[in-house]
DNA sequence: CCTCATATACTTTTT
DNA sequence: GTATATGAGG
């Protein structure tokens, strides 16, 4: 059987093989080629909806079944735990129950943790190192910045975190920074980076970036270790290769030089994580990086109708430097991509809400689309509110994907800090997080004392605190409370070590004795009950783990939380979160220049940013199976201010032949159009009416028409960054978001004295003011 | 040390 | 408009 792959099969033999190998059944020729090309590097360019996961899992099944490698000799990497889980399940389904293990199927990060635990000393860590999340990372950087005597206001920790992450994404250790980088962060970047890394080692901790950086560094500096893994991994498979960063690329290349049988699957047109360090260049350069590579294109799309594919293809064609693919489908033509403009964001939400109800009911000769087959995909999180508001008022079931995940919530992170502390009392970051939570009267001053003592005695903060208590260096209430806290901590830690109390019961005890649960029980804010609920869930989640340590490791790496509790609901999420998903009907609102493509993206990354935004648009359209509706609004409230915008430039790039322009309600006879469509329910009637109107609307001047109707030059009011307003002069009329209109009476640099019509005279910063329009300029 | 008010920022977010 | 960070005053 092991030779089956290499020998060309006659049709009959193929049928026999297929019967014996169910994973090969129904694969198209390109997919089959991707499965069977087991020699040398392979790049599978898999367009949206072309059965990429299918090919990837079939390939693994094929490798295993044909005896090319055993489960533990296959390295299969994904970006998300979800993808890893899916792959595992599908392989199992392909092969029946025979799959054992596959210990090296996982995310880049989880695999790196596994490797790093084995060789921790080579990176200066102990095998028990803890993994810091973004929150811990920022806290630590704050400490490093203030320790260096730098004004944390002018040079915020977030900024430093971004710079350091950027370096780690490119596998640049502190001692290997190129000269071009030394100016970063006011010239202090490199020194702060070194200090931060030193702190991490002292804490026996690694952040996400370190997981890869350390492993790459170990591979580069310890040939024997690398050789071992090279021998081990006879086959390497990579999912979503277009999303790899430089560190991941180096990691893969180092490993692939052993077996050379690396198979990367990806789509350059769906690279949307450049801002996180992903390098489209990795996939574009594949053939140079891996000489002799076979490139296989998966171009038959099984998801979307021809109009949808054509619209997406036409749009993405505007990007330069693509590898290029021609997606095709055997599906029936279906509906054109629908395009509609609205007066403002609220009307857009209203219209989409009505459309969704109509779709769910089944109108216009289309089969009813269940709510869970419908998605609204937005560019930015703040667009979601308008839809939530609307869906709530019309009683439409919806669910929001994304947002703060379970393990990122404050109460969960607090509880986790308690558990971390019980497992390892030397976890200083955890200590700082909870020592005064609930309030124990241990403030900044007490903490400072503890820090000093800890440093002097070379212990962790817990050690410092112990000393502070015995030496009575912290007075009164605080000292007493701290003593009790330390005592409790000692008990919990002993319990962990003994392992006599079950870890679930122990967790409950900890949350109870610490007063943390009580703190939320006494909290009268509306979110308190929800938080208590979450804490219960956390304890429940513990049940499926052997012990606390195992749970903590899991949580550090696995931050997902898709609990699906039945009930058909519309899905509301960002375009980024939608990658890899598909829906019969998709709504893409907010296609306005500045919002989508995002102004910031273009400001920061220029053409590269614009192209990534375009890929995001491409991802959005290709999520749709049968119906895709794009919309924009002429006016929108952004951070409480009205702003007007032009339709997105991406709209101009859609091929007109595959787009149907709908008439907005409100133009040509009021909003009855959309409502009437649902109300009559008669397939076709309102629809044909609309097409006739759309023809008028679709004349060459349609966009100008729309623009004129929708753009009453509102006063631009950009704030923050470089969006600062030019100076104001005495007697200028100004507007303040809180105090309303007023007149400038004095100015002193940024600070102005303004006499507000309603609120009286106030001192305010110029950046809070916008020039007030004269009576003629007021919108509407 | 705590609380309240005022100031400020704010895309996207696989791990 | 909201979430968070800081500073004054209690």
Give an account of the 3D structure:
The chain has 780 residues and is an alpha/beta fold. The chain is 46% helix and 14% strand. The protein is built from 31 helices and 21 strands. Strands 9, 10, 11, 12, 13, 14, 15 and 16 form an 8-stranded mixed β-sheet that branches. A 6-stranded parallel β-sheet has the order 3-2-6-7-1-8, sandwiched between helices. Strand 19 (751-756) and strand 20 (760-765) form a beta hairpin. The longest helix has 23 residues, at 476-498. Residues 1-9, 668-726 and 773-780 have low confidence and may be disordered. The chain binds a DNA duplex (15 and 10 nucleotides) through helix 4, helix 5, helix 9, helix 19 and helix 26.
What would the keywords be for this entry?
six-stranded parallel β-sheet, alpha/beta, 31 helices, DNA-binding, disordered C terminus, single chain, 21 strands, 46% helix, eight-stranded mixed β-sheet, 780 residues, disordered N terminus, 14% strand
């Amino acid at each position: 059987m092991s030779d089956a792959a290499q020998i060309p099969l006659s049709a009959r033999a193929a049928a026999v093989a297929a019967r014996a190998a169910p994973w090969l059944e129904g694969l198209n020729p390109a997919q089959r080629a991707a499965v069977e090309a087991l020699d040398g590097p392979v790049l599978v360019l898999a367009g949206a909806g072309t059965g990429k996961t299918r090919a990837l899992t079939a390939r693994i099944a094929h490798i295993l079944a044909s005896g090319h490698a055993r489960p533990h000799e296959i390295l299969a990497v994904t970006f998300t735990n979800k993808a890893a889980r899916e792959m595992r399940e599908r392989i199992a389904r392909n092969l029946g129950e025979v799959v054992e293990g596959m210990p090296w199927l996982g995310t880049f990060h989880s695999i790196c943790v596994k490797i790093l635990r084995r060789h921790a000393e080579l990176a200066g860590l102990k095998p028990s190192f803890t993994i810091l999340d973004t929150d811990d990372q920022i806290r630590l950087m704050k400490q490093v910045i203030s320790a260096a005597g730098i004004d944390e206001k002018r040079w915020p920790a977030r900024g430093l975190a971004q710079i350091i992450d950027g370096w780690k994404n490119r596998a640049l250790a502190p001692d290997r920074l190129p000269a071009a980088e030394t100016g970063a962060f006011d010239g202090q970047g490199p020194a702060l980076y070194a200090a931060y890394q030193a702190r991490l080692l002292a804490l026996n901790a690694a952040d996400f970036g370190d997981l890869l950086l350390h492993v790459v560094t170990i591979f580069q500096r310890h040939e024997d270790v690398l050789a071992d893994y090279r021998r081990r991994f006879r086959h390497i498979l990579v999912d979503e290769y277009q999303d790899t960063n430089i560190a991941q690329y180096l990691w893969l290349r180092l490993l692939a030089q052993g077996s050379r049988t690396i198979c990367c699957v990806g789509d350059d047109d769906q690279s949307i994580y450049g801002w996180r360090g992903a390098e489209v260049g990795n996939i574009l350069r594949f053939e140079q990086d891996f000489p002799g590579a076979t490139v296989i294109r998966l171009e038959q799309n099984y998801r979307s109708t021809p109009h949808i594919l054509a619209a997406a293809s036409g749009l993405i064609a505007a990007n330069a430097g693509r590898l290029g693919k021609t997606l095709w489908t055997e599906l029936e033509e279906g509906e054109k991509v629908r395009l509609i403009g609205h007066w403002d964001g609220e009307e857009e939400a209203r219209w989409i809400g009505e459309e969704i109800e109509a779709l769910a009911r089944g109108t216009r000769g289309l089969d009813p689309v269940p709510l869970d087959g419908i998605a609204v995909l937005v560019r930015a999180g703040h667009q979601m509110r308008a839809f939530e508001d609307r869906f709530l008022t019309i009683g439409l079931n919806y669910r929001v994907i994304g947002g703060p995940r379970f393990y990122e919530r404050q109460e969960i992170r607090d509880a986790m800090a308690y558990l971390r502390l019980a497992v390892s009392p030397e976890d200083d970051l955890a200590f700082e997080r909870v020592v005064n939570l609930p309030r124990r009267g241990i403030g900044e001053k007490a903490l400072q004392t503890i820090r000093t003592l800890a440093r002097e005695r070379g212990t962790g903060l817990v050690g410092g605190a112990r000393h502070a208590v015995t030496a009575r260096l912290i007075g009164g209430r605080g000292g007493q409370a701290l003593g009790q806290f330390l005592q409790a901590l000692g008990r919990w830690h002993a319990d962990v070590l003994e392992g006599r109390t079950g870890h679930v019961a122990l967790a409950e005890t900890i949350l109870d004795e610490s007063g943390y649960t009580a703190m939320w029980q006494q909290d009268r804010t509306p979110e308190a009950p929800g938080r208590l609920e979450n804490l219960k869930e956390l304890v429940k989640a513990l049940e499926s783990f052997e012990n606390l340590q195992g749970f903590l490791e899991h949580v550090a790496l696995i931050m997902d939380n898709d609990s699906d509790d039945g009930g058909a609901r519309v899905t509301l999420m960002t375009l980024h979160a939608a990658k890899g998903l598909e829906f019969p009907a998709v709504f893409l609102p907010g296609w306005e220049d500045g919002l989508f493509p995002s102004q910031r993206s273009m400001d920061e990354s220029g053409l590269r940013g614009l192209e990534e935004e375009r890929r995001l648009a491409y991802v959005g359209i290709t999520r749709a199976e049968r119906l895709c509706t794009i919309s924009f609004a002429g006016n929108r409230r952004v951070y409480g201010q009205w702003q007007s915008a032009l339709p997105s430039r991406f709209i101009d790039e859609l091929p007109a032949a595959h787009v149907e322009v709908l008439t907005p309600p409100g133009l040509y006879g009021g909003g009855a159009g959309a409502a009437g469509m649902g109300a009559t329910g008669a397939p076709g009637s309102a629809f044909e009416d609309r097409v006739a109107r759309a023809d008028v609307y679709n004349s060459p001047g349609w966009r100008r028409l729309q623009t004129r109707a929708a753009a009453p030059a509102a006063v631009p009011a950009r704030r923050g960054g470089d969006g600062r307003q030019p100076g104001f002069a005495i007697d200028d009329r100004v507007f303040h978001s809180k105090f309303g209109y007023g007149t400038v009476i004095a100015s002193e640099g940024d600070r102005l004295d303004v006499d507000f019509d309603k609120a009286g005279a106030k001192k305010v910063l110029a950046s809070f003011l916008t020039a007030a329009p004269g009576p003629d300029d007021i919108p509407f």
